[in-house]
Amino acid sequence: MSRTALKTETLAVARAKRAEADEKVPPTVMGMDPGAHTGVALYRGGTLVALETITPREIAAKLADVMPARLVFEDSRLESFVWTSASSKATALKMARNVGQIDAWCTLITEICADLGIPCHGISPKAKGAKVAAEAFGRITGWEGRTNGHERDAAMVAWRYRHARA
Length: 166
Prior knowledge:
A five-stranded mixed beta sheet has the order 3-2-1-4-5, with helices on both faces. The protein is of the alpha/beta class. A hairpin with a 2-residue loop joins strand 2 and strand 3 (47-54). It has one domain (3-161): Nucleotidyltransferase, domain 5. 48% of the residues lie in helices and 18% in strands. Helix 2 (59-66) packs parallel to helix 3 (89-116).
């Protein structure tokens, strides 16, 4: 089977899966905090139902598996400046390289969502707001389980959109 035929077949299966899921349960809104440790949060009917951390190479599979009604992700490309208080030039260069990687993952996420027909949009790190500590996160979201910073960021980036239909 050619690569194009395989991609077309995969997209058709993913879209059928999403249509079937939309009929059975409230729409899923996914939040994502891209990085070497990518945080993922799932909201169904406005309620936070799952948090996990995945690797960048698992992003496409996670999106195809869940087929959310909407993806909201923290998009580093929306910040025109990266402020750092790096103590050395080497540290500043490493931070620049890390931001460049995240920018590339944001581009990839947008392309995967377009291929799968998933509406998505990015939120700038500044618009997402400050990091939320675990205790405050529990009060805000009602989540009682353990979390890490990547998962909390993913949940908070999608918080305002958790009731979205698409």
